[in-house]
Every structure is written in structure tokens, then in C-alpha cells.
Amino acid sequence: MIKYCIKRVLSIIPVLFVISVLLFGISKAMPGDPVVHMIQGVKAEQYDQQYAYWEERLGLDKSLPEQYVAWISNLAQGELGFSTSYNKQVVSVIKDPLVNTIALNVFVLFFSLSISIYAGIQCAVKKGTFVDRFWQVFSLTGRSVPAFFVSMCLIYLFAIKLGWFPIGGMPMQLDGFNLLEWLRYLVLPVTTLTLISLAGTIQYVRNSMLESINQDYIRTARSKGLTEKVVIYSHAFRNALIPVITIVISSIGTLFTGSMITESVFGWEGLGTVLIKALNSRDAMLIIVMNFFYAFIYILTNFIADLLYAVVDPRIKLD
Amino acid sequence: MKKLFKFTLCSLMGLSLVACGSGDTEARDTLIVGTPEISGDFMEGFGNSSYDLYVKNLLTGYETYNFDQKEEDFLLDETAMAGVETLTNEDGSKTYTFTVNEDLTWSDGETIDANDYAFSMLWQAGKAWVTAGAASEEGDGLIGYDAYHEGTANAFAAVQLIDDYNFSLTIDAAELPYFYEMNYVSVKPLPQHIFSPESKVLSTPEGAYIDAADLAGDMAVVADGEGAFRFAPTVSCGPYEFVSFKNQIVTLEINEEYAGDPDGDLPTIPTVIVKYIDQSTDVDQLIAGDVDIINGVVEGDKIEKAKKEIEAGNLAESNYARSGYGYVAMANEHGATAIKEVRHAIAYILDNDEIINSVLGGYGTSVAADYGVSQWMYQENADAIEELNYYSYSIANANASLDKTDYLYEADGVTLWDAEKATADNEYYRYNSAKEVLEIKHFGTDDNTVTDTVENQFNANSGLVGIDFSITRGDFDALLSAYYYRYDDAVEDRYHTFNLAVGFTPVYDPYYSYHSDYFGTWQNSTQTSDPTLDALIMDLRSTSSTDRDAYAAKWLTFQQAWNDYLPMIPIYSNSYFDFYNSSLEGVDTSPLFDWSKMICKIKWAE
What we know:
The complex is a heterodimer. Chain A has helices at 2-29, 34-38, 44-57, 64-76, 90-125, 130-144, 147-161, 179-213, 216-223, 228-254, 260-265, 271-280, 284-312; strands spanning 82-83, 88-89. By secondary structure, chain A is mainly alpha-helical. Chain A folds into two domains: 32-79, no CATH class; 91-312, MetI-like (MetI-like fold), CATH 1.10.3720. In chain A, strands 1-2 form a two-stranded antiparallel ribbon. In chain A, β1 and β2 form a beta hairpin. By secondary structure, chain B is an alpha+beta fold. Chain B is 29% helix and 21% strand. Chain B contains 20 helices and 22 strands. Chain B is globular. Chain B starts with a helix and ends with a strand. Chains A and B meet through α3, β2, α5, α7 and α8 of A and α1, β12, α9 and α17 of B.
């Protein structure tokens, strides 16, 4: 196990290196000049002076390989670089939005996993009944409808027509942290993201459970006189867990990644909104760091999923 | 598992119910303003967001000269200044000696005196401030500016700190006369006790300078790093103090030490919140009561929606003509658009009225030259301006203009081009005698209804006058590079036309935009170079600051010449609508006075 972990960790390093080179190269190949964006409006007499200052400060006057080496060295020391669109250090830019994204996604993760696992099991157990058909139609609809459409429908109904929730934005904290105020602003984006993510996961759990339910050992368990509850949750579900774990672990990864469209529609100041702004303003360092972070999270969650497979299924050996 | 499911559903419902019930708790001691962007740079010299400017306006004040909304002129801020004396020196330079009122204080209770004004000028005009990453024009036009700004002189010759409450600034003779000369000596104080507490402003016969152990280090602290003053100002001399900026929400509280705006008015609303809202739903958010003010609405459908609420008594509005206009800019230095008659022809094939109707829902007016219909110069010359050529849509006039150029032939460069053969899409183009096609390459931004309409009109009409039209779309950064920096050797793809918009400040000085002195810089963005315009510009700007009639007359002459030269095609001047909660009073906004500049006049109805 330890040997396996060491091997996996070591194998992550070249993957991250390749990703870093690709991200750096792609962001540098994007058209537009971030310094031009930063200093637009500066008087012609001061323009060259300002341009030279920022070009030197951002290290853009160096060759691309030199820029890469400088960036990766700084990154290794915990310095994420300078955001040209926010005019401040990247770490300052993403600190609060990261918290906001996590706050949003914790609710989404909780609701979507709870509902989808239960509904997926029920669909499998009651295959062909109204319950199964309802969730099948729900899944199909959920996967077909884009997130922004769901968002706009919810905004129209619950914010504009009924006025129950704010249309968008972030909660104001005039007298310190106010949980209810946060919840008011969270309900609609959480509902949107939950509905969208439910669609896929229900189907996944259902299929996995169906496969498990049709196995011989389930028939044996039933013939032994075990209750249906024990058969389903202790025998069938346990064996259906491996594919489900993949979803659960990858969902944990999404805790840290923003949903660009939903966050933008609701004006939620999360990582997705920040990434859109970074892309629109050619903020290379912010784009690289955020995507590198996402890639890292993805690799890490995959690694954790592999470890958990061995925990839930003794047949899997990690060598 | 069933229990977990029930718990999940119950918590979802509970969350909704609890959240539903917690709204509408804001008391009327807060003003919430919605804005489509906040980047978080709250100090002048940093950032170029016009939305951050709202917060900057709330945090600063006591400028020596202010542009007055009613008089439409630069007037001494008598709340801040006890008086000013002017003296024309033997060398033609002009010295303004200001006396600062003795009862001014920063929000932390520290006194504001002449030292803070002199310090402000020296701090912002110096080279070290640029090195700290700031862009400032403070001091430009004063004697000795170049030497001080470049760092070749230690002292700024124009600045003298006379005593605790008197300081002087001297305008360079080379800049005089200048109609907007007061703008050269308009300066706000900066908090020396915060920025560089150990420093002193010292006056010598050669000028004044900041005597500090590590001025560059002091500036770096203000300009850079987590918690720097520019991101979180700790003191204010404006009507409000900065409290926080988090999650795109700026919270400000009233500055109890504030002595008043130039009229002596004080703010009455204890807390002002400026928060980001999505522009597509701004009117809905105002109607829902999530915000109290939104400004600069131009879309016809949103205006109509808000007007219904106004009729119901829920909202109120302030509308005004934009101080600026939307235009199709042209590259005056290369390609076919370097020829005046080609520029005229392009103007003739664009139907401004159609653009105003389809894009602005009719809430706009046509413009014929480089002005906004809200400018006082326009108001004084409105009848004469109406006589200018508006280049109303006419294929015949467009062809007549092109017939005055060398683009008279078919592809062989010999056979005369025949307007009768031309259709919108038969690719029957005009060529010149060198067999060069009459080509117009347009660049417009994505997701822009003006670009859509301009493209449609070019597509429908360019073929009828023999123009080979093509369009490229990109984001705003790509437009900046393609338009402002096309003269750069590194730029490979050169376009001829672009659609953008411009807004005027109180200082209307076409010198930077159209004079050949700025040819080859981004500021003269059309790359205009015309001796007639150059002469008229210099004549206009050298009008005495007290002679408004002469300035208005020269302005008209310049507009007439501009209208003929046509460096760009003005398309529309929008009507701007500021919508606000009907319980607010005093929201008498205008193009140069948004809500933040008149915050001391705005209050909740009792």
C-alpha cells in the first residue's frame, strides 16, 4: 500500500509538469497583451514608461522559457504570481472566491449525493414503476437542459415573480456574519446546481445498483430469508459502491472548482466568476494558476478514489 | 437511507423557508447602489475602471477647483479653500496661491492643511510614484514638471509651500493661455501623516520637494501588497469612509469629520453600499428592492420596464443625454479610409436612425461631429450644429463621394465601374488605377448589438457602392490592440473601421485626440493629421479661460471642419437613464454628475 502510494505520488510529478507546460504555453499563445489591458487610458507621454514598468515587473520582457522557469520556481515557493486584471497578488484574488465556491458546493454536494443515491437505489429496486420512470424522465430532462436555463427559470419564478429570494449577488454583511442572509442568496444557485448534478448521478447509481441486484449472491441472500432492507443496503449497495465512489470523490473535487455559468448568472463571487473575468481580460497568471489548481485537484481526487476502491472491495489489491 | 433522504428534503425545504423569511430587513439608513463591475482599486492613479470611480469620489474631496454642475465651469471649492490669488509672472507663467480653510480634517481627526496639498502634488508628479505602478497626470502643465517627473530635478519648481495654510502652484507659460487652465491647478490633498509620516515638505527657491528617508519605500507600502491603502483606504477627506470590500461589495460609512461638498452640503445617509449586480437583471433587482439606484441604463426594453414601475410609483428616474457618442472609427493613416471621400461614403451607407431605433429602442439622437448633446458648447451652438452634414443614409451620395476618388474602375483598372451593375452580394467591387480593390476590414467586439447592426448595414450596402467589406470580431482586449495600437510595427492585421464609443470629461480638449503632435500614439486613435484641424485645435485650446463666448465660437468652427474631415463617423448619442427607489430625493444626476458626485444632495424621504 505504502509502496503503491509512493509510486502514485511520484507519477503525479511528471503529469503536473506536462500540465504546467501546456497551461503556460496555451495562456501565452492567447491573443492580446495583458499590459495593454492594465494601462489602457494612460496618457501617451507616460504610456511607454508605464508599459516598461509593468512589463519588467511581470517578467514579460524575458523569453518564454525564462518566464516559465521563474513562474514554476515561484510556485514551488508558494508565490502564485500577480493578477493583471485585479492588480494584486493572485492569492489575494482567489482567497475569498474559493471560500464562496466551497460554501456553495458543500450544499450542492450534500443535497445532490443524498438525493441521488437514495433515488438511484429506489429506481433500481422499483424498476419499471412510476418512481423509476419519474426519475428517468427527470434525469433525461436534467441532462438536456443547460444550467443557465434552469437558473433563469428559477430566477424568474422565485425571485422576480414570487420575490422569495434575491435575483443574484452576494449577501451583504452589515452587522457581521449573518447565516440567514447567506442562505437567502444561496438557495437558488444551490438548487440549480443540485438539479443539474442530480440528473447524471441518479442514472449512474441506478445502473450500478441494477447490475448488483441481478447477481447470484443477492438471490442467495434473499433465499436465506434476509430482510429486503439488509439485502439492498448491506449486500447490493456495498457491491455497487465502486462506481458510486468515483462519483462521490470527483464530486468532492468540484467543491473547489467554481461553476462558471451558474456563478455568473447569480452573480456569485466564486472561482467560476473569477475565471471568466481572467479569461476576458487575458490575465495569464490567474488563468494558469486556477487551471493548474483544478488539474491538481482532479489528479488528487483520482488518487484518493483508487485508494478507496481497495477499502470497499477487498478483491482490489494496490500493488 | 430513507431517513437520510427525508432529512435531506426537510433541510432543503427548511433552508428555503428560513431564507425566504429573512429578506427586507434593511433600514433606511443605508443606500445600496448596483454596479456592473468593481475591481477594488480605490485610489487615484490606479486602475481604469469607471465603476471604481464611484467609490473614489466618495472617499475624496476638497479639491481646489471643481467642475460645477450648474455653472458648467471650474469653480473654487469654497468649503476647502478660503481664497485664491493669481499672479501673471514676467515670464508669462501664472501663479495660483491658495489659502486652505483652517477647519478641515481627515476622517481620523488629523488636520488638513497646505502641507497635504503640496505633498499631494509632489507625491503624484514624481518619478517614484510611476515606479510604484501609478499613472498620474497631476502636475502636468506646471513649470518644471518634466524635470521633476523624469527625476532630473529633485524639486518641483511649480510648487511652493508658503506656510501651514498657504501654498502656490505655477502654470508653465508655454501652456498659457489655456481655456481649462484651472484644471492644471486642481489638486486634492493626500494624507501625508499616513503615507509618509516621517517626511517633510520643504520649499526652496528652486521649488518644493519631499524630504523622506525612503520615499520609494513609503510609496510601495501605499501601492502594493495585501491591505495597501489603494485597496483599503484608512482615511478619507470625502463624504464617506471606507469600511470594507469583500465579495464585490464595498461598504462605506459617513465621514463625521467631513466639512461639506463645494456647496457646503453634508451627506445624510449613514451607510452606502456599492455592490456588483449582473447588468442583465439590474432593473429587476431594483424593482425587487435588492438595490436602490442603478445608473446609465441605455437598453430600450429595460427602460420601458422601469418606466412601468415609475408609473406605478415604485421607482423614479433621472435621464440625460450622454456626454459622448457611439461611433465607427476609421484608420485615417492607411488603406482606403485615409481618403476623405471614402470616409464620407462609408458614413453615407450607415443608417444612423436605424441603429438608434434597433439598438437603443429610440432612446438616442444623431450626432454630426465630435460632441455630446449635453455639452454647454453644443447648447450654445445647437442651431448651427443642425446645419452640419449628418451624412444621412444615401447610396447615391456614397457613390458620388467615391466617384471623386481614384476608385473608379473595375478589376482591370481601366473599365469604369458602373453603379447599375452593383448588387449587395455580386462582389462587383471598385478598384483604383493601380488595380487595388476598395477594401474595408472592420473590427467589432463580440456580443455587441451595435456591432451586429453595423455589420448588417455594411453587408446590405457596401456591395451597392463597390466596397469589399469583411468583419472580424473579438473581445474588448483584441479590439484595443487592433484599434489603439495598429500603428505598432508588430501588428500584422490592420483594420480600417471599428465600432466604439467615447465619453467626454468636463475638459474638452481635442488636442490629444486629433492633433498631429499625437500622431503615432494611441491617444490620436484615428491617426488624424490635418493642418487645418491642427490650427483650429490650437486656437480653441488657447482661448482665455474667462472668454466662454470666444471658446464656443471656436468650438463651432472646429466642429464644422471636423465634420468635413470626418476622422470617425458619429452614430448616436444615447439617452442615459438612472433609475432609483422613489423614496429617494435629490438624485438629480447629469452626464458629468453621477450619484457619487452628488451624494450630499441625496437623502431618503422622511
